[in-house]
Amino acid sequence: MNQNTSPMTTVAELFQRMENAYHQTAQANGFQCRGCADNCCLTRFYHHTLTEYLYLRQGLSDLPESDQKRVVKRAEETAAMMRKLESAGQPVRVMCPLNEEERCILYTHRPMICRLHGIPHQLRRPDGQRQVGPGCADFDRQCRIDPPRLLDRTPLYMDLAALEKEIRRQNNFEGRIKMTIAQMLIEEL
Ligand code: SF4
Ligand code: SF4
User: Fold this and answer.
1) Is 36 touching ligand 1 by the criterion CB < 6 Å?
2) What is this structure's pTM?
3) For residue range 118-129, what is the model confidence (pLDDT) as tens digits?
């Protein structure tokens, strides 16, 4: 897909707001992610928006060509390993192909969940129900505030949904997306 998206600055602004909200809530709880054995970069998260797909791909295309080739090759290997584990009925925990030496090489272009994971949150669903989610295991080990301060994902999700609608309209895209990072790096939409 050719990127037809002037709102990428807006995506960057929204992602910055997510990061700010994350840091404020982390600080309020006294939490600091210093990496851990659970390492969420090993978790098979699925991503569902064209916005995140295009933004990640923009980050990939900004890398030097040799880095792009290395990342794409690793993403192919990662996707193959995930398929193998899944078909064997084993837990699918494979390091994200963007993680190099414990650092995210597309940190500025990483998707939403990579920016929000780890601290407890609440979400007001469209039907009015309030949903609350926990922090990661290391959050529980580090933080003793009871109840914990929650990151309210509601306005962030709503803004992403509005942006997604506009970016889909501009790109004339109506498909359903459910992709891992590895798939986002190697599959064309
Ligand atoms: S967010 Fe939590 S699970 Fe992820 S690396 Fe940090 S401490 Fe570990
Ligand atoms: S995109 Fe970056 S932060 Fe997200 S799982 Fe991959 S390496 Fe980790």
Assistant:
1) yes
2) 0.93
3) 999 999 988 999
